[in-house]
Design goal:
Elements lengths: L2 H8 L4 E8 L2 H11 L7 E9 L2 E12 L4 E8 L5 E9 L9 H4 L24 H21 L5
Antiparallel strand pairs: 1-2, 2-3, 3-4, 4-5
Helix pairs in contact: 2-4
Length: about 150
């Protein structure tokens, strides 16, 4: 699935605008402290979806290395800072390591709190530990970036 396909799926009939934020060193430190995950880039690109003038949500695309190969996923965050959707768009590791969609649904309605960790509020996956850890860390990092650095639109 392409970015455009994912945006249309999660924001049907919405006007979607691409935005970019350049993080300051203070924001990087705050995000890392809040998320307990490393910030790999000071540039965050995200998408804001509006329908009839109302914010429908924000979409963040992330690509990272799981073991030796990349995976790309989209996290949709609602105006209330909760995860509305999480979907893997590309996964280049062996299929055995791909987290099932049912596992990804655990993130829906989650916020950045003490439960957003494997073996706490997110169940562990046998055989896909690195994939599960990578996704959970990146969701925490994206939610922290949303909270700290993304201007909230009205």
């Amino acid at each position: 699935m392409t970015k455009e396909d994912a945006l249309e799926l999660h924001f049907p009939n919405a006007a979607v605008e691409r935005k970019t934020v350049f993080l300051t060193e203070q924001q990087v430190q705050a995000i890392q402290q809040r998320a307990k995950a490393k910030v790999h880039s000071k540039i965050i690109t995200y998408y804001v979806a509006r329908r009839s003038g109302d914010i429908q949500g924000y979409a963040f695309f992330d690509t990272h290395i799981v073991r030796t190969m990349p995976e790309t996923f989209v996290v949709v965050v609602g105006p209330d800072s909760t995860v509305k959707a999480l979907q893997i768009l590309a996964f280049h590791e062996p299929e055995d390591y791909l987290p099932p969609q049912r596992w990804l649904t655990q993130f829906i309605r989650k916020v950045l709190d003490g439960d957003l960790w494997l073996k706490r509020g997110i169940q562990h996956i046998s055989g896909a530990t690195l994939s599960a850890q990578a996704i959970t860390n990146e969701v925490r990092r994206l939610l922290a970036a949303f909270e700290i650095a993304i201007p909230k639109e009205h």
